[in-house]
Amino acid sequence: MTAIPIARLTPLAWLRAGPLGVIWRSPRATTGAVIILLIAVLALLAPLISSYDPSSGAFTPWIKPGVGHLLGTTALGQDIFTQMLYGARLTLLIGIASGLISTAIGTALGLTAAYYGGRTGEVINTVTNIFLVLPGLPLLIIVSAFLRGGGVWAIILVISLTGWAWGARVLRSQALTLRNRDFIHAAVSTGESPARIIFKEMLPNLAGIIAANFFGTALYAVLSEAALSFIGIGDVSKVTWGTMLYWAQAKNALLQGAWWWVGAPGLGIAVLGMAFAFLNFGVDEISNPRSNHAGKATRVLRRKSVPKVVDAAGLPLMSIQHLDAGYVTPSGPVRAVRDVSLDVAPGEFLGLAGESGCGKSTLAFAATRLLDAPGAVFGGEARLAGQDLLSLTPEELRRTRWKDYSLVFQASMNILNPVIKVREQVYDAMQAHGVHDKTKLEARARELFELVGIRPDYLDAFPHQLSGGMKQRVVIAIALALEPKLVVMDEPTTALDVVVQRQILQEIDQVRRRLGISIIFITHDLSLLVEMSDRIAIMYAGEVVEEAPAQQIYTAPKHPYTQRLMTAFPPLSGARERREGIPGRPPSLAQEIVGCPFYERCAVHLPGTCDVKKPANVEVEPGHRVACFLQSPAVKPAVYQEEHDLASD
Ligand SMILES: Nc1ncnc2c1ncn2[C@@H]1O[C@H](COP(=O)(O)OP(=O)(O)OP(=O)(O)O)[C@@H](O)[C@H]1O
Ligand code: SF4
Ligand SMILES: [Mg+2]
User: Fold this and answer.
1) Distance between CA 471 and CA 462 in Å, rounded?
2) Same domain, 506 and 453
């Protein structure tokens, strides 16, 4: 197998590729970050840069900017440059702390509203909307009037409480989009807890938006503190750029011609605000489009070893009995699965074939309780190792899925969260079912990767570093992680090229034989199906019309539909010639079908019989069942020769 190397990253490349990389990819965000860093360094080094005390009025008042006092002095004789250095500390603290608290509140509420929806979502949404329509500054003034005297942290609290709503709104709408992604559905169905899904699956995908929110609220906090201080509501005993403005206007600095006293903190606030705004826009412009293309998904089941029809106790592993399933549509039900009965033995590889739209996927999903609305099971039974899957509670289902069975489908690779390392995602499925020992998790993950033909060092990769085939293998590894008894595979490799498909299938088969897993396998590739399967079931118009050992289906099909299907695909060996399709179309599954569903297309139909009665599904030879009047003991003698003529055509 061709291994795709994961590029070794230099520290600089790592920084660019990591979460902080978004700042370096945007010139605006970089400018903002550099300005803030500079201000922070100056603020931290204040005692080294200036030997003056920012509060002591030891100098002559109203000194103009000059050599002794770079930015002049205040009416109280304080050095303005020193005040700017020390004031930056609290101004930055207020900006960053308020930004963090508001962002945390907004993120928690936005994500909760999106994840849970329903009443919880509505209540959070209503509260958010109320905060959004309340005018910001008056609200700030009222709340801070109540908390007056509480110091800087009271200011931070007030700003945070009034500044979270916009972030919550944005987060909710982004998270709603994410909530419907395949990998989130996959996480839900593998039994991950809501908290884990929110924090581990959704949060990393929203990191850019959350970062942009943080910078936006930090900007709001810096401006709000300045506004509150300016009107005397802030803590004016502390030196911030806002309180400097307050004292400047209280002492009529501009009337005294001391423009520097107003200009310095005013410019400082403007520059800091601009830096936060740059970061906000820069991060937002990069992370928003990125959040639009996230993951893909997959699900897998498990199985057993060598084919036999029943286990030692004579029981099938999976037993589907009289299953009726389909879709509830505004124009009535679509009965995509009609009275299907099918058994899968422990360790058996059962192939499911049939034209597009005949109900293969619906059968697989309905029998494993994975059929999403508008899909529904109308009746029947599906038992796995004796357990009736159709009557399990959601909690029981959560425990059963992945542990007892799993599903891999064509788009399965989409269940991989693009921003979480492959290793963690392999661990997740096992952890959700109680395996927590790190040594065991790692050993099992490596073993699984080897099983499906991936070098274990790919555990360190992110999904985007892998090819489609590799991702599908990862999902298959995840599906095998808990050694389920059954793995349902619905065209798991159709999106991949033929060589990769075959490789993966061969590896799956080896795993099946080694672990004794049963597999239900759906594909349009009949040659692959005949090659891999122990037994094949042929579906037509929602019904299983024939089932038999794979070789028998290939060499001696009995149902006219199977016969046409087998002649419609190239032989397993010899020259590849162009084959005919089957003329006509299957009947609509939205209607009642009277008689044999293949009647309209069947060249050997029996008028007066096939169009008025439904042929029973009869075992014509051990392990070979057919639903066709030609195989019915009652009509067989009359048409036997005709049927054989058709088969030999
Ligand atoms: N959401 C839906 N609403 C209504 N009808 C649906 C829906 N999904 C599928 N169907 C119908 O159910 C029938 C069976 O579909 P299903 O996907 O199970 O077929 P399939 O054999 O898996 O086909 P394919 O080989 O193309 O995957 C089809 O006629 C299809 O049109
Ligand atoms: S039951 Fe009749 S119509 Fe149906 S496949 Fe058999 S011969 Fe053809
Ligand atoms: Mg399908």
Assistant:
1) 10
2) yes
Ligand in nearest proximity to the CA of 326? 1
* Helix runs in 392-495, H state only: 394-400, 422-431, 438-451, 468-480
Q: Are 414 and 187 in contact (CB under 8 A)?
A: no
Q: Is 325 found in the same domain as 274?
A: no
The full DSSP string for 182-225 is: HHHHHHHHTT--HHHIIIIIIGGGGHHHHHHHHHHHHHHHHHHH
254 and 377 together in one domain: no
SS3 345: coil
Within 6 A (CB) of ligand 2 lie 559-560, 596, 598-599, 602, 604-606, 610, 615, 628-630
CA–centroid distance, 358 to ligand 1, in Å, is: 7
284 and 356 share one domain: no
pLDDT digits (tens, 9 = 90+) for 29-45: 889 999 999 999 999 99
Ligand located closest to 635 CA: 2
Which mutation among 561, 601, 610 tests ligand 2's pocket best, with the greatest number of atoms within 8 A of CB?
A: 610
Q: Whose CA is nearest to atom 6 of ligand 2?
A: 628
Whether 528 shows a pLDDT value over 90: the answer reads no
* H or E segment and range at residue 74: none
Q: What is the pLDDT of residues 353-367, one digit of tens each?
A: 999 999 999 999 999
What is the extent of the structural domain holding 152? 82-290
Q: pLDDT tens across 272-322, in order? A: 999 998 888 877 665 543 333 222 221 222 222 333 344 445 678 999 999
pLDDT, mean over the chain: 81
**Is the domain of 286 the same as that of 348?**
no
Q: Please state the pTM of the whole predicted model.
A: 0.60
